[in-house]
Amino acid sequence: MNQLLLVRTPEEINLRKVDPAAGAAATPSSSLRENVSSVVWSNDGSAAAVLTERSIRVVEGGSLQTVTTIPAPQTNAVAFSQSGKLLLTHQRPFRIEGNPGKNLTLWQWREAKPCFQVTHKGFVREDWPCLHLTEDESEAFHLVNNTVNCYLVGSQGGAERRLQLKGLERGGFAVAPAGLPRIAAYVCESKGAPGFVGIWDHAALPPGGDPPQAIARRSFFNANHVKLMWACTGKALLALTTADADPTNKSYYGDSKLNFLSGDGQNDALLQLKEGPVHDAQWAPDGASFAVVAGHMPARTQVLDSNCRLIADLGTGSHNLLRWNPQCRFLAVAGFGNLPGDVAFHERTGPKQFQQLGAVRAENGVVAEWSPDGRALLVATTAPRLRMDNAFALYRYDGALLAKHPVEVLLDACWRPTPKGTFPDRPSSPGRSAPAASTSGSTGGKGTANGAAPSKISYVPPQFRGDAGASASSSLHGPPKAAFRTARLPPGAEPAEEPAKAASKNARKRSNKAKSKSEQQPQPDPAGSPAGATSASMPADKANGSAPAVSGQQDSAQQTSAPAAAGDADGGAAAEAAKRGRALQKKLRQVQQLKEKAASGTALEPEQVQKIAGEKELIAELQSLGITA
User: Which of 312, 375, 457, 527 could cross-link to 354 by cystine, CB 3.0-4.6 Å?
Assistant: First the structure.
């Protein structure tokens, strides 16, 4: 089934039909030629808000045909409500008759009619949207002057209820998207008192005065800002605290911690992660689990359930970004920004089981987003973050590159959302796993030309490299002997000899050297005097009579040196074979230890899994040497 990909350039926005099996279409299916500052989709993809300098144009999601136009000049941010029926806009501050105008507006966009307005100062892009709605969108919450005000949508009256907390920071509150009515808020530390995050029942908030007792609360020090992330079920909350300075002075980028609070107040904890900053934390779309990548590089990635219990450890790598696919089946762990762009793809194969399908290097990535069917990952290099090599690429769930399209100036690339349940959950196809796949760990290595993760390749000397040698050298334990015979050689080069032949040649050299040395040395007579002195002092007839004896000794030495040379050659080859056999037996013992470790339930690194996979090759090589494994 085709899906739509929106591409925005300075001249136009266009939609492209995408089939994940074939890649992106070369030509757009529909386009809107207009310079726009941003495009925002509704959750179901039925509509998109196109932001221009003078107005907001709401277009149909499939054809980009204008549905309605909202006259809101100088608007700098828009957002759809959860149902997609309401549209929130923020305009630059303005004054009406000397008084601040109401620049934060909630619209019934089909009628271009505002249903709620309030004044908002100090707009910060990272805290958008700054107005939160309940699940039924009947109440709106807005923060001003250490107070979260609760308004009825559609009413022009004042706040119905208030949560007053001294020290309430900007952007420091969040409303549960579903479940029981809950509101979370963050209060920064002050005068030696720690900061804290609390959860309240917003239906029980009074019109004014002191707030009721919090349902859940967690205190901490050394936090300048907190990011509050509710699970989509509203049953649990993650609070990511960040500080400008690291008290241990180990990180230039400051310090960060991840706190967990259950919505009912029965469980709260500080997650004990790898030492170092928390780079990213993301709830799965079903709210049953979340992933977190933390620690000094290489960072460690872990998956925990909604009760903060460890499900799986995905190993370490140069990663700082997490992306779940909509069906919660695949998880992409990436390293963008100041990292080289390694992306590892994992599949959930069971309640507590993950398998790595592959890895690829997507250099200069800025945007990473899964397709609605959850089978392809979009990675885009966009301006103004990067002005060079703008492009968008599609990678299959196992890391294989499906398509890559360069764009001269790419401002944005994103998928058109689809209603929940449009695409069913599908596991990976059989045989699609890359060679580096494992139940835990992350390679994070650079991918091959088609995007698949490379296997480990042993070093091959330059004189043995070539087509046949390269293919043979991809073995886990180095090139077999046949590679030395079939490798291509440069013109005029002598073919290299096999290790066994080289050993025999060295043995012959040693034997010949010993032979020549023995010929040059004087041979002692039975009495112990040198042969030269004996022949000089003896009469001629005796000397002549002794000559045959000396010649016989030389012949005997030559006869004995030949078998010795052959024995040295055979002994050298046998020594090399024995040495290789001992090394192979040592590797087999290591493989057996790793298999016992895996049987006990311990997660293995990718290199350890590859060692186990090479057991058959080790046994075969031992048998070729005449040694029993």
Answer: 312
Q: Which two tokens stand for residue 542?
A: 């005796």
Which runs of consecutive H residues, i.e. helices, occur in 26-77?
A: none
Given a contact cutoff of 8 angstroms between Cβ atoms, the answer to whether 379 and 343 are in contact is yes
Distance CA 567, CA 572 (A): 8
pTM for the model stands at 0.68
Q: pLDDT at position 560, please?
A: 46
Q: Which is nearest to 308 in space by CA: 280, 273, 269, 352?
A: 269
Q: Which helix (H) or strand (E) holds 226?
A: strand 225-230
Mean pLDDT across the stretch 164-193? 88
- Secondary structure (3-state) at 555: helix
Q: What is the pLDDT of residues 537-573, one digit of tens each?
A: 344 443 344 444 444 444 444 444 444 444 555 666 7
Q: What is the pLDDT of residue 399?
A: 93
In the numeric block, which tokens belong to residue 25? 């279409």
Helices vs. strands in the chain: H and E counts, helices first: 7, 39
Residues 439-449 have pLDDT tens digits of 333 334 333 33
Residue type, 600: S
d(CA 177, CA 182): 9
Tokens of 315: 């190993």
pLDDT score recorded for residue 462: 58
Backbone torsions φ then ψ of 459, nearest 5 degrees? -70, 135
DSSP code at position 192: T
Pairing, β 168-175 against β 161-164: unpaired
> In Å, what is the CA distance from 371 to each residue of 3, 71, 220?
8, 33, 38
The identity of residue 95, as a single letter, is: R
Which tokens is 36 given?
A: 């726009």
The string of DSSP codes covering 385-402 is T--SS-EEEEEETTS-EE
**516 in helix, strand or coil?**
helix
* Among 38, 47, 81, CA closest to 416: 47
Q: How do 225-230 and 299-305 pair as beta strands?
A: unpaired
DSSP 3-state of 490? coil
Q: How far apart are CA 393 and CA 374, in angstroms?
A: 15
Alpha-carbon span 480 to 412, nearest angstrom: 50
The pLDDT assigned to 555 comes to: 47
Strand ranges inside 92-138, DSSP E: 95-96, 99-100, 104-108, 113-118, 131-133
Distance, in Å, from the CA atom of 435 to the CA atom of 23, rounded to the nearest integer, reads 23
The Cα–Cα gap between 366 and 521 comes to 79
Domain chopping of the chain, boundaries: 497-624
pLDDT of 309 > 80? The answer is yes
Separation in Å, CA 52 to CA 419, 579, 623: 27, 75, 74
Write down the pLDDT at residue 540.
41
State the average pLDDT over residues 197-210: 88
pLDDT for position 586: 86
